Amino acid sequence: MSLFRRTVTAPPRIAQVLESDEVVLGLARDDVGAELAVTRRRLLLARGEAVPTSLSWFEIARVRLDDGVLEIVPLRWVAPFADGAGDLVVDAPTLSLRIGRANRLTDQIHHRVRSSVIASRHLPWPDAGGWVTIRRVAGVDGVLPQLRLDAGADRETPGFLAAAERVVIELRAGGAGSGTTGVDE
User: Domain of life here (predicted)?
Assistant: First the structure.
């Protein structure tokens, strides 16, 4: 066992946004020069913009590596949920990066996104529906309820939000034993 942790030197575009105690755990570059960095708290993506895109692990719905292309589905905040204690979210446009085959970085990304999910359950509802999820937020005590609306779901459908809040209560009471956990296929 090594006494020293291997550190990754962040490129300047990434280093400029790191907090003083934040360490880059993994780094990759895609075929057009975009830089992707993983820290304990978040994923950073620098694609030429002045400030890199920052996604906390609870702000990512799905990650998939298919034929060398890493697809990241970020979440977009819509409104408060669960009496203001949670977030109502929808899928934002997919971020795609050609990074080649699976590697340590892609494993870290999958692990951190999945680890942020304590419990989740799909709530089917006529004209609505969505994933109700209880998530960890890195660096914060407590948990965050999220309602991720299905595509085309109408959040104003009668009874839907109340039903989703009941699912939050059930998931909190049952923890990981209630419903689906970790993956929302």
Answer: Bacteria
Separation between Cα atoms, residue 100 and residue 13, nearest integer Å? 22
Give the pair of three-digit tokens for residue 132. 């109700």
CA 164 – CA 83 distance, rounded (Å): 12
Alpha-carbon distance of 169 to 114, in angstroms, equals 21
CATH number for the region 12-173 comes to 2.30.29.30
CB 41, CB 57: distance < 8 Å: yes
- Domain ranges within the chain, ordered by starting residue: 12-173
Q: What is the largest CA-CA distance in the chain?
A: 58
157 neighbors 129 (Cβ within 8 angstroms) = no
pLDDT of residue 182: 44
Vertex 169: Cα angle to 158 and 114 (nearest 5): 105
User: What's the distance, Cα to Cα, between the start and end of the chain in Å?
Assistant: 38
Distance CA 135, CA 115 (A): 8
- pLDDT for res 1: 41
pLDDT averaged over consecutive 10-residue blocks of the chain (185 residues)?
61 91 91 91 89 95 92 97 93 93 85 96 97 94 95 97 96 65 43
For tokens 């209560």, the residue is 169
